[in-house]
From TrEMBL:
One of its GO terms (molecular function) is transaminase activity. The keyword RNA-binding does not apply. The keyword Transferase applies. InterPro entries: GrpII_AminoAcid_Decarb, PyrdxlP-dep_de-COase, PyrdxlP-dep_Trfase, PyrdxlP-dep_Trfase_major, PyrdxlP-dep_Trfase_small. This is Aminotransferase class V-fold PLP-dependent enzyme. Its cofactor is pyridoxal 5'-phosphate. Keywords: Aminotransferase, Lyase, Pyridoxal phosphate, Transferase.
Length: 490
């Protein structure tokens, strides 16, 4: 790795060549073989359009909308588009929807929790009710904002929370109840109508997290899919988040947080005037905001249009169906749920077929999937986020999946040493020192990955260790493993 601050400046072309060389080691962001992290519609010219729009507004600062009205206009247009798509705006039962553009789903969720907390200053120890399938960003929000998290289990068969269990979890200190549409891990839509009704009966806000695939649900309904009610058409839904840098296919990072009306949004703001500088007023967490992502999202939505999204969602739905059929065609694999949105998630029913080894075998064949660890009664699984770019490659996936399964069976399950398994089951998280983790990482083949070096090609052993560890120890291991990777280059 070259120094970021050399003694003498480096020519622009050389710098770009260096970045291209670094990027060569990344997962492929285009081509329909990466089932996580990025969203590719395979629309010709869209990348160039978004990059040009980003460049036009990259140096515009969203801190003061009166100084840069272009950014305010584009932000309001994005909010209006999201509101209209999700059951709000003129002529609906939620005509007064307002919103803000954020940097991503996590910021949207943190702000939804903040608004709910700050709307109830009378509650000394606020709490939020979240199904265990709710995104981890809610736990992050609770941690950052000093809020207690009341988790509701999901049914192992339906992967949804029972509405009566959600209602029972609501107490006098609850400030927010959460539902997902759809959930990230398994792609199923929670029973939003019943959850929102329970929240409304208790006088509590209800947030629908539609960050992941919520942008696709209205078009799926138009294509004839049985999408349940989940948006502002549902009484009791007070806020919704939806990411534009996912299935709206805008570049990172743009999300929209919507509230049913301005009074509900008001506690989201932060204002401060008790200092000699400028009057600070922030609708979101950041103060300075580049206009680049907002302009890129505006350009993306304008270019694709309603008809374009309908076509992209149709292609994605067809790809989901074909991938699910490929999974059904393999003995020993089972879908965690029948696909409802843009996710195919499957598990292994064969003790001789280690999912983590299968993930490595798929990677070796050019398919980059996302392993999910076991949790409570839910087994480990493999998650596929399906985008429109996957459709042309679907026919290749089935044969490669069969080959990968055969190779995984031949290799056999990962076998951790008995002493390591015993350690994972008994070690208190606080006893996990950086030195211990460094030795453990070296033994697992991660030693070469410290300090920004090359990472190992296979991760089945690491995933098996994480899967064997209790949740709190798992969290500590994740922190320490990543800490080993994030070291300065000198």
């Amino acid at each position: 790795m070259n120094e970021a601050l050399p003694e003498q400046g480096v020519p622009a072309g050389q710098v770009l060549d260096e970045i291209r060389a670094l990027r060569a080691g990344d997962r492929p962001t285009h081509g329909g073989r990466l089932f996580a992290y990025v969203y590719d519609p395979a629309v010709p010219g869209l990348d160039e359009l978004a990059a040009s729009a980003h460049a036009l507004s990259a140096h515009v600062n969203g801190l003061d909308p009166t100084a840069f009205p272009s950014l305010l206009a584009m932000e309001n247009a994005l909010v209006g588009a999201a509101a209209k798509l999700l059951g709000g705006g003129p002529g609906t039962t939620a005509p007064d929807v307002v919103g803000s553009v954020t940097s991503g789903g996590t910021e949207s969720l943190i702000l939804a929790v903040k608004a709910a907390r700050d709307a109830r200053p009378d509650i000394e120890r606020p709490r939020i009710v979240v199904p265990v399938s709710g995104h981890a960003a809610f736990a992050k929000a609770a941690h950052y904002l000093g809020i207690a998290l009341d988790l509701v289990p999901v049914d192992p068969s339906t992967l949804r929370p029972a509405p009566e269990a959600v209602a029972a979890a609501i107490g006098p200190d609850t400030v927010l109840v959460v539902a997902s549409a759809p959930s990230y891990a398994h792609g199923v839509v929670d029973p939003v109508e019943a959850i929102a009704a329970a929240a409304a009966a208790a006088g509590v806000r209800c947030h629908v997290d539609a960050c992941f695939g919520g942008w696709t649900l209205p078009w799926l309904r138009r294509l004839g899919e049985p999408v349940p009610a989940f948006d502002f058409s549902v009484p009791g839904v007070t806020s919704i988040s939806v990411d534009l840098h996912k299935y709206a296919y805008a570049p990172k990072g743009v999300s929209v947080l919507l509230h049913r009306d301005a009074a509900l949004r008001a506690p989201q703001y932060f204002a401060y005037a008790d200092w000699p500088g400028y009057g600070m007023i922030n609708p979101v967490i950041t103060s300075t905001r580049s206009g680049g992502p907002i302009a890129a999202a505006y350009a993306t939505l304008r270019h694709i249009g309603d008809d374009g999204y309908l076509e992209l969602v149709g292609r994605t739905r067809d790809a989901v169906r074909a991938l699910a059929d490929a999974v059904r065609g393999v003995d020993g694999l089972e879908l965690m749920a029948e696909p409802e949105s843009t996710v195919v998630c499957f598990t292994s029913t064969d003790p001789g077929l280690d999912l983590f080894v299968l993930v490595d075998e798929l990677t070796a064949r050019g398919w980059h999937t996302q392993p999910q660890l076991s949790y409570a009664e839910l087994p480990a699984s493999v998650h596929l986020t399906v985008t429109a770019s996957v459709a042309p490659r679907v026919a290749e996936f089935g044969p490669d999946l069969h080959d990968a399964v055969a190779a995984a069976r031949a290799a056999g399950p990962v076998a951790l040493p008995d002493d390591l398994l015993a350690l994972a089951g008994a070690l208190p998280p606080d006893a996990l020192t950086p030195e211990l983790v460094a030795g453990l990482a070296a033994g697992l083949g991660l030693g070469s990955g410290t300090g920004g070096g090359p990472l190992p090609d296979r991760a089945a052993t690491v995933n098996r260790l994480l899967d064997a560890a209790p949740v709190r120890l798992r969290e500590k291991l994740l922190v320490e493993f990543v800490s080993l990777l994030q070291r300065p280059s000198y």
